Every structure is written in structure tokens, then in C-alpha cells.
């Protein structure tokens, strides 16, 4: 009778244990995704300062989550605004050794105050609760 009671308690508690593990895994994934996004932004700033000699970084922004609003995925978004005396083509050529430019995920645009570098990549835990 004692063994049946232990087995019954185990069966009843198993769903709660599994739900707890899923929650812990999602929280861990969220932490890793945010750390990865911050590292991506710092790396982007470092590449810019190493490559462009007269750069002045005006602002940097990073976001982790479903940035496009479509689908079930998590993105790492980094946006750095900066000023430089170089032209847009010169900056693109300098940064081409680090990044592959396209219209959606990685591009540099000219603004009133200088330039804006937009970089959006997939997060390490891309199928995380943050993407819903």
C-alpha cells in the first residue's frame, strides 16, 4: 500500500515538475538571448570604432524579442547611430568585412545627424516564449 501511495504521488506531481522545468528552461533561454543581444551590440560598436577613424557614436539601442511581429521566433536587434565624415559607400565598404548587407536584416542608412546601422539576427534560443 505504501508503494502505491508513493507511485500515485509521483504520477500526480510529474506534470508540475515538467511544467516547472519548462519554465526554468524558458527563463534560462531569455537570459541567454538578452546577453547575446548585448554582446552583439557591443561587438557592432567595437567594429565601427575599429574601422572608422573619425566616428562619434551618438546612441545605441538593443532589443530582444519578436521584432518583425510575424511568426514564432526571437530576434536580436542592434541599432547604432553615429556620425562620421566618410560617405555612406565608404562606411559600407569598411564594414563589409564584418557584415553581409541586405535590405532587411543588416543595413546602414543616412540620417539627419549621421548614420544608422541596423543589425537584426536570430537569437540563440529562437523558439523561446519571448517570441510569442
Structural class determined from secondary elements? alpha+beta
Considering DSSP H and I runs of 4 or more, what fraction of the residues is helical?
40-55%
Radius of gyration: 22 Å
Binned strand content: 15-25%
> In one word, what is the shape?
rod-shaped
Identify the quaternary structure here: single chain
Query: What is the typical, i.e. mean, pLDDT?
Result: 92
Span from first to last CA?
A: 45 Å
User: What's the story with the biggest beta sheet?
Assistant: 4 strands, antiparallel
Number of helices: 2
| Poorly predicted parts | none
Largest sheet strand order:
1-2-4-3
The strand count comes to: 4
| Helix and strand element order | HEEHEE
Task: Describe what this molecule looks like in 3D.
The chain is an alpha+beta fold and 132 residues long. It contains two helices and four strands, in the order H-E-E-H-E-E. The longest helix has 50 residues, at 2-51. The mean pLDDT is 92.
Provide the descriptors you would attach to this structure in a database record.
single chain, 132 residues, alpha+beta, 2 helices, 4 strands, 24% strand
SSE inventory with pairings:
Layout: H1 2-51, E1 56-65, E2 75-83, H2 88-95, E3 106-110, E4 115-122
Antiparallel strand pairs: 1-2, 2-4, 3-4
Can you describe this structure in just a few lines?
It contains 2 helices and 4 strands.
Amino acid at each position: 500500500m505504501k508503494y502505491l501511495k508513493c507511485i500515485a504521488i509521483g504520477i500526480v506531481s510529474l506534470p508540475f515538475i515538467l511544467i516547472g522545468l519548462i519554465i526554468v528552461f524558458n527563463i534560462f533561454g531569455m537570459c541567454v538571448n538578452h546577453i547575446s543581444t548585448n554582446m552583439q551590440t557591443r561587438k557592432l560598436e567595437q567594429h565601427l570604432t575599429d574601422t572608422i577613424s573619425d566616428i562619434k557614436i551618438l546612441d545605441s539601442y538593443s532589443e530582444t524579442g519578436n521584432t518583425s511581429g510575424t511568426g514564432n521566433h526571437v530576434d536580436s536587434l542592434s541599432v547604432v547611430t553615429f556620425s562620421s565624415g566618410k560617405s555612406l559607400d565608404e562606411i559600407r565598404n569598411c564594414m563589409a568585412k564584418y557584415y553581409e548587407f541586405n535590405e532587411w536584416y543588416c543595413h546602414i542608412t543616412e540620417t539627419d545627424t549621421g548614420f544608422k546601422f541596423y543589425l537584426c539576427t536570430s537569437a540563440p534560443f529562437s523558439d523561446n516564449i519571448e517570441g510569442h
